[in-house]
């Protein structure tokens, strides 16, 4: 009797351990499928700003713009020299060491006056290379027309070009370069998070289900109804009493919450490169698929025809020989795809028919036209 109780106890413990192991595995799998709110949303107002400017690069070793063809380079050079007190209005003005360039940069959010940002420099005229050039003081403007940064410095060019009488070697793009920390911020963008009473979260991939899951996760964390979904791409959040003046703390806590983003059944096709990307939720109704191509191969060859040895008649000549092979794809069979197959089953079935990526694009579009593909097709 005592041995029976011991056996039952061991069996019960084994069962409990097995259930706990299965629960732990399911929990771990679910946690892996979830994403941080930080990785799927942006806080409205916390964004980069594009800056652009027009300037001159000097110090080029004869690889600059031709002043005769690049009129804007010549006028910019004359204007710069006149501002420095040099009279340069002369038709004989000629130099190949100056190039007109466009300067671009990205102003990060909350950038403070006096801090530095990187800039990219690209040739605007017919310059051959910007290698060894120096960018002169260039104001960088935003969309509102105001100057937010000033750029200047020596260019770092990754490419180069070398030319001789019979050959030219070009590596990379020598007409564009970069200046690390080449611009100083002169104007700040006023945006005070601490005084905000509400803010918005913008989903990078708008979706009703994902937005609702984010809203519910925030409400469950705070313990109050502080968030609501206004549209598939926006979640409005009101700052609760416990976070007055500490909006940064609230955003930090919200960013670490984990939700499972929902994904639409979508097939993305790039016809130029033949790339196909299919989502996990793509389903197929019962449909039959056959694929066959007519392939004609023509091979031309020449054979030498000559008379028999010691013959007094006939001449040696070449004769054309043509071989034509026709493949009608008769070995390709009709395949049946069952209802509700998964993405893996669909791919395995099409691969089993010997279908290549470009033929697969045509098949997917035909299946969609037949109403058997329960997914959205997006052609890039």
Helix content: 10-25%
For the CA atoms, what is the radius of gyration?
A: 35 Å
Continuous helix count: 6
With strands numbered from the N-terminus, the spatial order across the biggest sheet is 3-4-5-10-7-6
Question: What's the short story on this structure?
Answer:
By secondary structure, the chain is α+β, with helices and mostly antiparallel strands. About 25% of the residues lie in helices and about 35% in strands.
Overview of the molecule:
The protein is built from 6 helices and 23 strands. By secondary structure, it is α+β, with helices and mostly antiparallel strands. The protein has 3 domains: 49-185, no CATH class; 192-259; 266-293 and 331-379, no CATH class. The chain has a 6-stranded antiparallel beta barrel with strand order 3-4-5-10-7-6. The chain has a 4-stranded antiparallel beta sheet with strand order 2-11-13-12, covered by helices on one side. It is flat, with a radius of gyration of 35 Å. The termini are far apart.
Keywords:
380 residues, cell projection, signal, Flagellar P-ring protein, single chain, flat, 23 strands, alpha+beta, Flag_FlgI, four-stranded antiparallel sheet
Give the helix/strand layout.
Elements: H1 2-33, E1 35-36, E2 41-43, E3 49-58, H2 71-83, E4 99-107, E5 116-123, E6 134-141, E7 147-154, E8 160-163, E9 168-171, E10 176-185, E11 198-203, H3 208-222, E12 227-231, E13 234-238, H4 247-255, E14 258-259, E15 266-270, E16 275-278, E17 283-284, E18 287-289, E19 295-305, E20 317-327, E21 335-337, H5 343-352, H6 357-369, E22 373-374, E23 376-379
């Amino acid at each position: 009797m005592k041995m029976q109780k011991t056996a039952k106890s061991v069996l019960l413990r084994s069962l409990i351990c097995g259930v706990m192991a299965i629960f732990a595995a399911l929990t771990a799998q679910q946690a892996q499928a979830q994403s941080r709110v930080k990785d799927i949303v942006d806080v409205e107002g916390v964004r980069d700003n594009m800056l652009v400017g027009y300037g001159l690069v000097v110090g080029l070793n004869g690889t600059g713009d031709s002043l005769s063809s690049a009129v804007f380079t010549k006028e910019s050079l004359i204007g710069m020299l006149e501002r420095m007190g040099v009279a340069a209005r002369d038709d004989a003005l000629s130099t190949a060491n100056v190039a007109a360039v466009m300067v671009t940069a990205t102003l990060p959010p909350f950038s403070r006056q006096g801090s530095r940002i990187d800039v990219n420099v690209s040739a605007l005229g017919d310059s051959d290379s910007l290698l060894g050039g120096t960018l002169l003081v260039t104001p960088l403007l935003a969309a509102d027309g105001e100057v937010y940064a000033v750029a200047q410095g020596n260019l770092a060019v990754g490419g180069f070009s070398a030319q001789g009488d019979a050959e030219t070697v070009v590596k990379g793009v020598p007409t564009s370069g970069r200046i690390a920390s080449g611009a100083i911020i002169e104007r700040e963008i006023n945006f005070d998070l601490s005084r905000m009473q509400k803010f918005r979260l913008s989903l990078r991939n708008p979706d009703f289900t994902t937005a609702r899951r984010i809203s519910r996760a925030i409400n469950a964390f705070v313990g109050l109804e502080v968030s609501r979904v206004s549209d598939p791409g926006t979640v409005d959040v009101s700052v609760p009493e416990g976070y007055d003046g500490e909006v940064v703390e609230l955003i930090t806590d919200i960013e670490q919450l984990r939700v499972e983003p929902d994904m639409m059944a979508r097939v993305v096709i790039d016809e130029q490169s033949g790339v196909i990307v299919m989502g996990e939720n793509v389903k197929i109704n019962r449909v039959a698929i056959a694929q066959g191509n007519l392939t004609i191969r023509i091979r031309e060859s020449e054979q030498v025809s000559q008379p028999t040895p010691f013959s007094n008649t006939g001449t040696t000549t070449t004769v054309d020989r043509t071989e034509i092979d026709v493949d009608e794809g008769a070995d390709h069979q009709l395949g049946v795809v069952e209802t509700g197959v998964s993405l893996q089953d669909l791919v395995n079935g099409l691969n089993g028919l010997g279908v290549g990526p470009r033929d697969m694009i045509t098949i997917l579009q035909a299946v969609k036209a037949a109403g058997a593909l329960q997914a959205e097709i997006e052609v890039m």
